[in-house]
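Late entry, written up from scratch paper. The run itself happened at the end of the previous shift, but nothing got recorded in the book at the time, so transcribing now.
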Amino acid sequence: MINRPEIEPCDHHTNQPPSEKLVRCLIQAYELAIDEDDVQTQALLGSMLHDVGGRIAAAVGPKAAQMILH
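Output as recorded:
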């Protein structure tokens, strides 16, 4: 069994947009999961991309992200 230290949540970076490199790598990994028909990895990466998209939208603001808020 591998002894892993507990991971503490890091709230001070959540307001920053992710790097373009990170976004490109996540998209590439998602596309590879589709090519390999790996449904479980697709679901995991899809969830991550959804979160990353929300962080990008929050950083640029709703008007720049072309979001309509009610």
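The chain has two helices and no strands.
(Scratch paper discarded after transcription.)
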